[in-house]
Amino acid sequence: MKLEIVALTFALLFSAIEIRAEDIRVGFYNAPPLMIQQQNSGIYHDLLLQIGAITGDRFIIRYFSIARLQRLFEEGKLDLEPGINPSWRQQSNTPGLYSTSFATLDQIVLFRPGSAVEITGPQSLAGKQVGTIRGYFYPFFNQSLAQGDLERIDVTDEPQLLQLLERGRVDQVFTDRVVQQYWAKQNPQLKSYPASQSLSATPVMMRLHPARAAKLKQINRALSQLRQQGTIEQIFSQYR
Description:
By secondary structure, the protein is an alpha/beta fold. It has helices at residues 2-20, 43-55, 66-74, 142-147, 158-166, 177-186, 216-229, 231-238, and strands at residues 23-28, 58-63, 80-84, 97-98, 103-111, 129-133, 151-155, 172-176, 200-208.
């Protein structure tokens, strides 16, 4: 009789997990090491796997251009966009709902060897061309970019951004510290490319479509658990 009760308890628990589990459509774009399209991996990929292990959800990941990803989110055809700060989506007709912050991205300037200048303020690069990612916001230089003091040379992803430097198309690009560390690890030659100090620290979150509002509490609980366990830091450290 006791064995039957135990078996029934496990069956009910398993059924509860299955009922709770949902397919969540996720939009990625190629931005190594945060999202690595060629290997279907990266920091956000690994983090969602860990969240899914806690919530029971299945995160269905597909890659798009940034513009198409945002359009699909607006249309309700995507449920989640990872690693977003609300200030980046202020102009969206569907700003979305945001989880608690799970990491901070540090903006830096990466230079070609021999081209580094000291960054003392937003005007330090006035009159220069700077490599940027189309659709990205750069808080430290927002005003300079808006006023036209800097010329953006937009590309679609991080690999193309690094190519701008390697080919001498520009002398500097805007990127994040974690991206610079990843590429220096992949290509030792890039260790000779000087980087500025951290210019701004931006907290990033999971952006949920309002239609999936019921999932926000579960995701927040999972992020809290992973943060306390040190799992999130471990994931980031694997790509540095």
